[in-house]
Write a structure and sequence with these properties.
The complex is a heterodimer. Chain A contains 21 helices and 2 strands. Chain A is an all-alpha fold. A two-stranded antiparallel ribbon of chain A has the order 1-2. The longest helix of chain A is centred in the N-terminal third of the chain and has 34 residues. Chain A starts with a helix and ends in a 19-residue tail after the last helix. The relative contact order of chain A is 0.20. By secondary structure, chain B is mostly helical. In chain B, 75% of the residues lie in helices and 0% in strands. Chain B is built from 5 helices and no strands. In chain B, α3 runs antiparallel to α4 and α4 packs antiparallel against α5. Chain B is flat, with a radius of gyration of 24 Å. The two termini of chain B are 42 Å apart. The chains are: A mainly alpha, B mainly alpha.
Amino acid sequence: MAMQALINGFADVLNVYTILWICVGVTIGYVLGVLPGLGKATGIAVSIPLTFYLEPVAAIAMLIGIAKGSAAGSAVSAILLNTPGEPSSAPTALDGYPMARQGKAQKALKMGLFASVIGDLISTVVLICLAAPMARYALLIGPVELCAILIFSMTFIGGLSGKSLIKGLIAGAFGILFATVGMETETFIPRMTFGLLELDDGLPLVPIAIGMLAVAEMVVQAGNMRQLDKETAQIVESTKPEDRVVLWSDWKRCFAPILRGTLIGSIVGVLPGLGASVGSFLSYGATRRASDFPEEFGTGRIEGIAAAESADNAVVPASFVPLFALGIPGSVIAAILIAAFVLHGLTPGPRMFQEQPEMVAAVYASMLCASFILLIIGYTGQRLFAQVTKVPIRLIIPCVLFLCCIGAYMETGSIFAIYIMLAFTVFGFLAKKLDFSFVTFLIGYVIGPSAELSFRQSLQILDHRWVGLLDHPIALVFVALTAVILVVLARSRTRNINSLPDQTAGTNTTTGGNRETS
Amino acid sequence: MRIANLVSGVILIVFGMFMLLWIIPMQIEEGPAGMMSPRLLPRMMIWLILGLSMLLIASNLRINTNAFEVTPISLLELLALAKIGGVFAVALSLFLTSGPLWAGIALIIGAQVVLGERRPHVIAFVPFFLIGGTYLLFYRLLGTAIM
């Protein structure tokens, strides 16, 4: 039955029109991934309005292509410039950049691509196998349970996606607060609209995401421009053929790290809030520990690249599991993709498997196709894409700013969206620099309306008596888990502060520096 | 980051009080009797922000450090924010007075210039390429206006 649905999904996807848009998405994503600081979330946020005029399947397939392409492309700048396209590619740079300095850039890039595709493909299969069965259980969940799960998710994400639990929770609270702007759904009373009709429908997500992710990142990049430009011309290429291709001996060394990385990435992706950075660092660390030569890691071991990239890319499809099964975005791209899915008629959540099985199958099929297209485009165009790193950042920033304006403007067709984008640029810039997790903010913003609705319904169901929670054991479990998470995270953070009072981040600040769910 | 955390904590408390005492009562009406107040969730979030900001201040006051603190926002980044903000201000005023084409040109050229590009042919080519490409994509390929 499920296999038949998937075959039907392939029938919807395997046509020139959809494949073309997947290719466009993968190519755009790969190029965006190559550019330091411009990750998959930025790419998707800017591209959503461009998909308004596409068929739903093609539109979603293109956005998925962008996500997959940029996850793989971010390894290119990590290897060639020692500047990860996204924070999650930072461990790739640890061994990738030394390999590039040894003249083995081509080999490192190819292994990065192969590991990315394998991790991504297996993780997509995990998504297909897990999401529908989980969704069946999710349908048994009522408003009280949903409210408890949302509170748990926000706490979990807020606690893990930044360096500070308190700041993560503040960011999440801000996200929910901003989500209350606009007409209240039950009483139709406007909230914090300041008399502006444009705010009656609430703040539009796309300009917010573009401002916080893309424009704010461009401002940070502009501030670190000189350092980035200095790195560009330092790579030499070996003339030996064996330094340019992945040999069988390389595959033998990388096979286990890729599988381990895929497993770690898939598990990390399924858990909301952990993010690709956690996955890639965990996988890199596990591979180093398992190696016979752990001391050689960081000097150009190809297993390091394989481990980091497979996990980094495995996180992306796996992070759709909570989105598809529960309707809860586990990562910032999942949060932004909700807007795109809804726009094109697919509401993520457990009901979508019953109400729109054909569309879900088409999404799965397009995800699998995107993996293969990523391999083809990445392999054939890698040398060309690598040239993008040589474009001075002072030329890239104006182009990105222009595209951001078009993306934001198209959302509402009004200049008001640009104002919102700019306001959230400042907000995002400050959040980024002061380590208030903008990921938690965006996820809080996206789940805000359903959190409020389930909270209202819960109050009515429980008749305003908290003791009524005893009749909802699942909700009780999640409330208890929230308390446990808070205590555990608070204690571990306090221990870290006490042991490392003045530790400053040593990672490259040009990608935002802080660990974020991507 | 300690000083930055303390300052952000204080600013957040001031913001929270302002929201609680001024914005929410002014901007959100009380709902009809028997229904959950539309003010409830915003108020809850503000109380949460206030409580967490106090915790942020308290936890950072507890940290004992004599080491030199690196400011989280560098001067170059602030400068970049001001420059790009200025370019947007010019582009927006041109949008309102002269139309989107001039705003787009001003945005692209302005950003190039403030970021240090000085080659005239590059300064001219980038807007031509971007705006021309956008025109071809929307008006020719997709067959629609940008909205």
